[in-house]
Amino acid sequence: MKLLEERIRKDGKVYAGDVLKVDSFLNHQIDVDFLCEVGKEFYHIYKDCGVNKILTVEASGIGVACLTAQYFHCPAVFAKKSKTSNIGNDFWSAKAHSYTHGTDNTLIVSKSYLGKGDRVLILDDFLANGCAATAMAELCEQAGAAVVGVGAVIEKAYQKGGDALRKSGFRVESLARIASMSPEDGIRFCE
Known about the structure:
Number of helices: 6
CATH class: Alpha Beta
Shape: globular
Number of domains: 1
């Protein structure tokens, strides 16, 4: 998605430690009009897949999931990173490592919101090592739901996550694929 690549070049900042900061429009401050265009693109890609649920992880994926769900006319469900007192004991759970936070999380989704017959599009802001997407796919498997695809706004294609998910049989579509990045050399996108 050229519009996204242009926005990353304009507003993205590359930091040491393999960090791309795009929080001015994607995941801290959200440019709603821009994210609507992202949502339209995911809809265009997956519109014929019978999506009836969009699944993401709190918190950075929620904006993308919600603004995409409006085009599918379906709920956006987000996996919580910790058990809260109001979720009860009837939930699916899977472990995921967060590269950004350097922590391991147990992702939780209430059984009321994910189950048999659901056709799920997994969405997230970033795809790097694939830990979050793999954990969400595991939640879907536990629930008996079908994963119709995995979408990422930005994929760090030089890391193993996207390729591993593709080799596992998932349809993975990323709107911007980064071939390399560094504070010195900037960002190079995949052709």
